[in-house]
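Thread amino acids onto this structure.
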């Protein structure tokens, strides 16, 4: 599971860098928000991979970050789509990509937690 967290973090970093590099906005720094969130996700993934004793804590931190990322990106996406005319298609795609990646990671984390609980009770 730590590898999945690291991969999702890297995907978010790539999404942020891609959004920043193709943005034509005056201040494209906000396009790097997924990259920053990806770095935040990579850290507990690396910790969980490197220190088996901290795996449980690292995975719970990653699940929390995935939930927050999903809520932030999904909430902002809903607000942008509620407008009659969104400012940029790139922004919408970036928000949708971040929400999707964080949602998939959260689902994987929940499945992993359920599987671990079942394995301990058997």
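Threaded sequence (122 positions):
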């Amino acid at each position: 599971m730590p590898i999945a967290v690291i991969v999702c973090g890297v995907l978010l970093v790539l999404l942020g860098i891609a959004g920043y590099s193709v943005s034509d906005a005056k201040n494209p720094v906000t396009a790097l928000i997924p990259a920053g969130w990806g770095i935040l996700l990579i850290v507990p993934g690396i910790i969980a991979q490197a220190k088996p004793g901290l795996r449980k804590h690292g995975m719970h931190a990653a699940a929390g970050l995935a939930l927050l990322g999903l809520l932030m990106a999904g909430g902002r996406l809903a607000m942008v789509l509620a407008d009659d005319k969104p400012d940029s298609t790139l922004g919408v795609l970036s928000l949708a990509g971040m929400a999707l990646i964080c949602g998939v990671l959260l689902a994987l984390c929940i499945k992993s937690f359920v599987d671990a609980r079942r394995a301990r009770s058997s």
